[in-house]
Design goal:
Helices cover 51% and strands 0% of the residues. The chain has 91 residues and is mostly helical. The protein has 2 domains: 39 residues, no CATH class; 51 residues, no CATH class.
């Protein structure tokens, strides 16, 4: 299955599980954050790039940095060093 189709299927699965009317069937925060769609290196890279352009980190967490650096090294993937590491002062 093409990667794009798989990503769409995973996104739909996450949304369906977040929008469950029955509370016991609805994903918890931890389960949602651990979902396959949110545990994607390219998605994380895209979010970090967006945060860098914006000059503010609010979509990713600093604690994930080491995990994704390790993942990139293990898989032989490039991990940019230009991402912001600290929040810029508010204007």
């Amino acid at each position: 299955m093409p990667q794009r189709c798989q990503a769409v299927i995973e996104a739909i699965d996450l949304i369906n599980n977040l929008l469950q009317v029955t509370v016991r069937r609805r994903y918890s925060v931890d389960k949602a954050l651990g979902h396959t769609w949110l545990q994607d290196f390219q998605l994380w890279m895209d979010l970090r790039e967006f945060e860098t352009r914006l000059g503010r980190r609010y979509l990713t967490h600093p604690s994930d940095e080491a995990l994704w650096q390790s993942h990139a090294a293990e898989k032989g993937l490039a991990h940019p060093v230009h991402f912001i590491t600290e929040q810029r002062d508010s204007e």
